[in-house]
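Hi team,

Below is the intake form for Molybdopterin-guanine dinucleotide biosynthesis protein MobA from Kitasatospora cheerisanensis KCTC 2395. Please confirm the fields before the structure is written into the shared record.

FORM ID: S-0412
PROTEIN: Molybdopterin-guanine dinucleotide biosynthesis protein MobA
ORGANISM: Kitasatospora cheerisanensis KCTC 2395
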Amino acid sequence: MAAAAAELGLDLAVDVRGLLDMTRVVAHGVERPAAPLTAFLVGYAAAANGGGAEAVAEATAKATALAERWAAEADGAAGQ
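The structure came back. Fields below:
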């Protein structure tokens, strides 16, 4: 992460564990290919909202919550 950030000219320390947890929830709760696409959207949303670690954390939390809701709805539908 640090090497990629440096290569891209970014000086941003983010919660890597939080990002990985979000992609895990999306991959397992929604669909595997959705994980990298959601990570892209999280970065895009963070940049659109001023950037920085706080914006990344906020976007990550929102994406995680959405994926968890979808997974819970799918589990509920499967149990009916």
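SUMMARY LINE: The first helix runs from residue 2 to 7.

Thanks, M.
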